[in-house]
Design a protein that fits this description.
Layout lengths: L1 E6 L2 E4 L4 E9 L3 E10 L6 E6 L5 E3 L7 E6 L4 E6 L8 E10 L3 E5 L3 E6 L1
Parallel strand pairs: 2-11
Antiparallel strand pairs: 1-3, 3-8, 4-5, 4-9, 5-6, 7-8, 9-10, 9-11
Length: about 120
């Protein structure tokens, strides 16, 4: 089985920064795309950023220029550096990974709360 464990969330004032990490563990042959999603209260889960195995990145328009996604393939870890945080960035942030074991499956982390105060 594969597990994704997130860390790095918490409260921060507007304009501040946070760095989220998500480490994958288990019987992993390869990880394809990895990404971050978020879900605010009363809203649907939305894509924040995604990075392919070839380090091609894509961002939601709302975070472009403020957030940076990166990955360390040797550690099976994906990061999300979040700068210039706004109250509207408040949400639970979830890590996602497309993992190749004996087949290809999508896995999710448990989520980490990010709260931005004005």
């Amino acid at each position: 089985q594969v597990q994704l464990v997130e860390s790095g969330g918490g409260p921060v004032q507007a304009g501040g920064s946070l760095r989220l990490s998500c480490a994958a563990s288990g019987s992993i042959f390869r990880i394809n795309a990895m990404g971050w999603y978020r879900q605010a209260p009363g809203k649907q889960r939305e894509l924040v950023a995604v990075i392919t195995s070839g380090n091609i990145t894509n961002y939601a328009d709302s975070v472009k220029g403020r957030f940076t996604i990166s990955r360390d393939n040797a550690k099976n870890t994906v990061y999300l550096q979040m700068n210039s945080l706004k109250p509207e960035d408040t949400a639970v942030y979830y890590c996602n990974a497309e993992v190749v074991t004996t087949r290809v499956d999508d896995f999710w982390g448990q989520g980490t709360q990010v709260t931005i105060s004005s």
